[in-house]
Amino acid sequence: MLHLALFTIFGAVAVAGAVNLLVQRHPINSALSLIAVMASLSVEYLLLGAEFVAAVQVIVYAGAIMVLFVFVIMLLNAGEEELTRGSRVAILVGIPGVLIGAVLIAWTLVQHSGTGEVAIGALPGRPETIGWLLFHDFLLPFEVTSILVLIAIMGAVVLAGRPVPTSQQPRKEA
Amino acid sequence: MAQYFTGTDYLLSLPVVLLTLFALGILLIDLMLPKQLKWVNAVTAFAGVLFATAGVWRIQAVYAKGAGGYLGRFAFMQSMLVDRFAIYFFYLFLAGTALAILISVRYLEIENEHHGEFYALMLLSVVGMMCMAAGYDIVLIFIGLELMAISTYVLVGFLRRDRRSNEAALKYLLLGAFSSGIFAYGLSLFYGLTGSTNLRAIGNALQHQMMVRNGHADPVAVLALITTATGLLFKIAAVPFHQWAPDAYEGAPTSITGFMSVAVKAAAWAMLLRILVFGLYPLRSVYLPLIIFVSIATMTGANLAALTQNNLKRLLAYSSIAHVGYMLLGLVALASVDYTQPAFYDGFKGILLYLMVYTFMNLGAFAVITSLRNREVIGDEIDDIAGLYFRAPTEAIMMLIFLLSLAGIPPLAGFYGKYFIFLSLIESKHYVLASLAVLYAVFGLYYYMRIANSMLMREPLEKELLPLSWGMRAALGVTAVATVFIGIFPNWFIEAVNWSLGLTQATPIAGLMK
Fold it and tell me: How far is A67 from chain B (nearest CA, A)?
């Protein structure tokens, strides 16, 4: 019961964050919504028993990658924050909304406290299992993924990393 | 549980490993090459393709020989299934890539974009294609697909000072990423439904679920099927998921357009057949109406749109979409009968033979268009080919052969692809579809003959003769000879296709003699 309730709440948060990510005009707002999505996804992973993936999700996605995102947006001069009608509504409704959400989660946790204990490493998604899957069952896809990452780097170098050559004679416009 | 990798696994991945090593080698060698010696990269890439071919040959010799021998071997914990079907496609990819490398060298020199990354990306995209054709696990298939697609996006945008190339790459990237997302969603639903990423396990579980539900498919399975099929149909550029193709084909460097229209398309077909026929065969009654609708839409849309095109690359893009429509008819035939019926094998054979024939004739046509690229002329408008016969008679005749073959005129290779597909349609009693396809083939003849008309009947705009590089000569020679040769001696090639399907009996031009 607790499981289902938490799963539903964080699922709803993830979907709401994803919708907000698309709706927002300002890139910083979208990036912040993405952090909310990542964080709630990591809770979902934890609820499914994948503790390692949940931790990685927080450290890599919600942490490292999002910091990089926000850095890039800042570097590219995202522009002034503008107050739209939507953001005013968000200011008014947002704080009570967060409070209600927090109370809801706290209430469910309190209601269902003491339903059982779980030790670290007892869940099915142990690092050992993941390592076995990655380097045994899915060894070939794993290795091919490394080529995929290499291609992405090469693509960036080819398309953006060199000055655009000038042709000896300009091309005839089609 | 504790099962470890053996020599078999490493041998079966040999072509993939060789191609990767050569691609990385090109990247390193490229750093040391002065500008005049960039052609060395092309030679290295070509050598890589040859070594990979030798690797495939070795696999074939060891594991797939004889009628009673193995039809295939699993590798890497059933991630990969190297069977005759996969080996057939390996050869197709390697042939298409080798020809595309040959026609690229001069073109890149003229465009002043001769970098080693070009060839490295080509080889790595073949690695992706091989993972798609031999993948037996949806994880490997998907990663192979992305590997191929991302290298192709970069290759399409390789001409950075050409606005069309940039635009094409961006459109292709956005639509491609979107379709990959839909495809991944469908695959994840299948994983959720069946609890496995292995195609055979998915197929068996679906079969079981169908039996439990009295032959009706689970609604979630239908949703998964539709999203997966959307992704697959997008990758082969079938109407209504074709919008990216004309733009991407027009903007890409011409040799890459040729490469995309044969190797990339063959890989997408291999993946489609693997998933729809090998994995999702229990759901065939569900996807049959979908495929019928898409094939009719594809033939109609593409053939009508091609009538009015004035850009050669765009025209051939629409023509390649139309060919996808014909090939889908083969899928219709094979999905509408049981696998014991002849229509199943003839449909399959039709698709495979079509892809082989198409590799040669379409790359040949693109080779001729590539050779029109000059210092001053882009050479992809239908006016640019005007009077080609008076400037370069050999090329004009070859182009005529390719065009007639594309239209499906009997003594040439293109006829046999269409022949088996129409045969399978008639065997599976789709008479209306068969007559519709023949009707659209006539439309095709019209727009191919428009090119021929411009080439043979009009005055040339320029008198200058076209200089041909050695690579271009070799590519044109191979494609032209193959197009004529397959047309005159189809038996060997039909036997090769039979072999790839594990059919033992030699079929002497199948029903023609009956």
Answer: 24
